[in-house]
Amino acid sequence: MSPEMSNIATFLIPAYAIFWLLTFLYVFSVRSRQKNLEKDIETLRLLVEKKKEGK
User: Fold this and answer.
1) How far apart are CA 34 and CA 27, in angstroms?
2) Is the pLDDT of residue 41 over 70?
3) Interatomic CA distance for residues 1 and 9, integer angstroms
4) CA-CA distance, 52 to 45, in Å (whole number)?
5) Position 55 pLDDT exceeds 70
């Protein structure tokens, strides 16, 4: 392997690792926010139902 190829591989492997780490963190973040929104929607739905029953 030439020195140039060795240099490229030295940076390419950590770059792929960082890319996938950031991708998984982003997906985890989106999923976490989605769960929070689903909880908020359910809470609002229950509040609307209670308000309708109270009238």
Assistant:
1) 10
2) yes
3) 10
4) 11
5) no
SS3 15: helix
pTM above 0.85, yes or no: no
Distance CA 51, CA 47 (A): 6
CA nearest neighbour of 25 among 17, 36, 37, 15? 17
Phi, psi (degrees; rounded to nearest 5) at 36: -65, -40
The pLDDT tens digits for 5-35 are 788 888 999 999 999 999 999 999 999 999 9
CA distances from 19 to 14, 22, 36, 41, 55 (A): 8, 5, 26, 33, 54
